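User: I'm writing a short report section on ligand binding and want a predicted complex to refer to. Could you take this sequence and zinc ion and write out the structure as tokens? A short remark afterwards would be nice.
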Amino acid sequence: MKTTLLTDLTIEDICKGFEYSKLEGKGLFGWSGKLTIQPEYQRNYLYAEEDGKREKAVINSVLKGYPIGLLYFYKPNPEEEKFEVLDGQQRITSLGRYFTNLFSVEDSSEHQQYFRTLDSEDKKIFSETKLTIYICDGTEKEIKEWFKTINITGIALNEQEVSNSVYSGSFVTLAKEEFSNSQNAKLQKWGTYISGNVKRQEILETAFEWIVKSSDRKKIEEYMSCHRYDKNIDELKNYFEKVIDWADKTFTKTYSEMCGLEWGELYEKYHEVNFDIKKVAEAVEKLHGDEFVTKKSGIFEYVLKFFATGKKEPKLLHVRLFGKVDKQKAYDKQTKTAKQKKVSNCPACVIENGKNKNKIWLQREMEADHVTAWSDGGATDLKNCQMLCKFHNRLKGND
Ligand SMILES: [Zn+2]
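Assistant: Sure. The structure tokens for the complex follow:
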């Protein structure tokens, strides 16, 4: 069996010559007559049921730029440019029905929009969206056999598993030997940085994600298709090891929170920086022990960024906020003093000396602020808590 990937067919192409049989409730033909949407053995169109909830979801996905998933076509006769939909007939029928104005979807201002009433920009998005289609070429028996394996009841194959079967060949075989082999001694080291099930091809998927992001290829499928018959996996393997080795070298101590981070991305951003490994380790350890840091997995990027650029980005760390009790106490104390002095209870409004210099804000109009920013060593406790009006708190920003 042979499979070919098509990525430049647009929705408009597929919808050209779309025919829908109202009587049979079936999408019949598309792609200018080349595509039989619903061969005899397929079930009828179900997406229009329940008030069309599902067909509307397909259209909304397209308009929002979300993928609608892989489509599989079968080419019964290699000599003839004719295709049948193996998987995707419901989605294609939704597209065709929308394209021919058979139903409408609600837009963000709650107006019903048919295809013909969409504004030109949305029309363009819809028409020009490209579909990802696998064309399978082979005997009907082969096709059915293969199709069964991608749809085993209960265990739907994940995308990487499907891709492996679509692009089976020397490259996938070698890649699986390296990345999907539970006997591989390197697994333990990889497990520090990558989460996922080796048998379900999830490490392999990460390896592909990393190399794809580092190159100008947009999709794993594209990469696999291009290397399908390669006799080695050097590029994939070397890049993967470079990322892991860099992480390993940069962080001398390992933490469970390192697992599953976007190491490929961090590598691309920071591998050329000369880090002082000892300082990095100290900073990580300090933050890891800091009870105000509630998102420990953000520490690594925070530290890399800080040593590379000097910028502190506490939002990576989800620094703990002041509690209700502290906020109430700070508010009461500030407001009491302010009233005695007949000035605003927002110290920043007082300093600004503008129209709010005497304003007593309600507590709900104020926000808690670290007097000494957390990133400069200030604690999240009552002593370091002051209430500011929302305007001034946001003006002060960084925490
Ligand atoms: Zn203020």
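A remark for your report: The first helix runs from residue 11 to 15. The mean pLDDT is 88.
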